[in-house]
Specification:
Shape: elongated
Number of strands: 0
Number of helices: 4
Largest sheet: none
Structural class: mainly alpha
Amino acid sequence: MTQPSPPLSPFQLLIFAAFDVAGWLAAALLLRALGPTGIYDGGLRILVYVLIIPGTVPFIWLAGRLGRAQPGQLFPGFALSSGVATLCDGTALAWFPTLYGPTIAFHAGAGGTILWGVGVGIVLAYGMDRTATAAS
């Protein structure tokens, strides 16, 4: 039977949360810049959603390194910080929608893309953490 991982320290929680807030803001600004290129239309939307999957892996890895996550800590740390990023996304969509662009289509496209990325990140963090835990 494996030993349970230690709980995340306040420092680790802060690092994970700050890293994901910075990642959310970077994604929001990137999507605002790319929105006018048509990335939310047709096949480009599919391509963006597919590219989010491999693009999220280094982000999760770096969050774990900065947060000094031990095996078993990456998933809870990333899940918590993803919740914080989702709160940022919801707040921006409700009160600051022009962060994502000038029209409702841009707001919806960027908001949906960020929510997809959060979900992908949580699933990938779970798999990466299980792999690290099994290897230790």
